[in-house]
From TrEMBL, chains A, B:
Residues 14-74 form the HTH tetR-type domain. InterPro entries: BetI_C, Homeodomain-like_sf, HTH-type_TetR-like_transc_reg, HTH_TetR, Tet_transcr_reg_TetR-rel_C_sf. The lineage of its organism: Bacteria, Bacillati, Actinomycetota, Thermoleophilia, Solirubrobacterales. Pfam families: TetR_C_6 (PF13977), TetR_N (PF00440). Keywords: DNA-binding, Repressor, Transcription, Transcription regulation. Residues 37-56 bind DNA. This is TetR/AcrR family transcriptional regulator. GO terms for molecular function: DNA-binding transcription factor activity; transcription cis-regulatory region binding. Gene3D superfamilies: Tetracycline Repressor, domain 2.
Length: 200, 200
């Protein structure tokens, strides 16, 4: 299921779709997926429920759109840092994890949906499969660059580094969400990054 | 919810409970949680549905019991290796991961339930919270021993090593289950273990 397939071709339509997604992102974060209704999203945008369904034919579609938006916002933050000239892979990932730790509701939403998405019949299955392929591709390229510039040790296949980094971030989220008082996500990731940096 | 609270005090009762769990483990693995009914579990043991419900008041209770059993079997395999005198932490974890890669159905069941369990109102929430506390405690102790014997580099807090190892294993499962053709779990874990071993 392609959550991002536009149901509109006009700039006004795209803007409306964007307003709905941002309202949904805010409401899902505040009240959870189950706690935020399509009616509440519609009310926040000032349109009818039918108006929301025109862009997103079900609440699941809306949710997948929100998850895409979340990824886009993360990518935009990373690019902003890159433009500021001080971005590197390690800092970028630590920033994502700190951000997720401060936004447990949306992180929880993502964790549950990604896990449910492992079932081939789940409406989000392909979306998550593609998402992780994309994440691995981006991280592999970033790891290769970090190796070439000497920031990462160069004796590990960058594709393995990518799989490992994505895995640690997801696994830390699970432990953190189950036990937020006991688990900090930043320090273990920082430690892995130090190991990948070849610190003796 | 304590899935393991015995509803029986006699040896016969414990044996019956154990037979139900093993039948459920087999059926859930073959047909998934949704695909295997309480009736099918009862039929496999040769008792009535009511007989199953005497030990496990709901299908969720039965599932939590199965997950406990899965952890116990993993622990038993580790102990068997330890008795054979050739166990170490790295080998033990690689063995668990290879095993999970060969049993994707039960691994999927565990991954989905653990993620759903992050919601405080989920019937398995406390069970998974306790499970991860236990896993971190066991892994922390094992990491400390590996550091003391020189198999792991000693400059990382063993509690951080434990959190990291558990996280990588869970995150690898998610990627593997979404995309079993593209993702191998063993090699990335082996790589992390090499880094923790201080290989230059």
């Amino acid at each position: 299921m392609a959550a991002t397939r536009p149901r509109t071709t006009t700039p006004e339509g795209r803007e409306q779709r964007d307003r709905i997604l941002r309202a949904a992102l805010e409401l899902f974060t505040a009240h959870g997926f189950r706690g935020a209704s399509l009616d509440a999203v519609a009310a926040a945008v000032g349109i009818s429920r039918q108006g929301v369904l025109h862009y997103f034919p079900s609440k699941t579609h809306l949710l997948l759109g929100v998850l895409d938006l979340r990824d886009e916002l993360s990518a935009a933050r990373a690019e902003e840092r890159a433009r500021a000239g001080n971005w590197d892979l390690a800092e970028g990932l630590l920033d994502v994890v700190s951000h997720n730790q401060r936004e447990p509701d949306l992180t929880r939403l993502f964790t549950v949906l990604a896990a449910e998405g492992v079932a081939p019949e789940h409406p989000g299955h392909e979306r998550f499969q593609e998402r992780y392929r994309h994440v691995r591709t981006v991280l592999t390229q970033a790891a290769r660059e970090a190796q070439e510039s000497g920031r990462f040790r160069a004796d590990i296949d960058p594709a393995i580094v990518a799989t490992l980094l994505a895995a640690v971030m997801d696994g830390l989220q699970l432990q953190f969400l189950l036990d937020p008082e006991a688990v900090d996500m930043v320090e273990p990731l920082a430690q892995l990054l130090k190991l990948l940096g070849g610190e003796q």
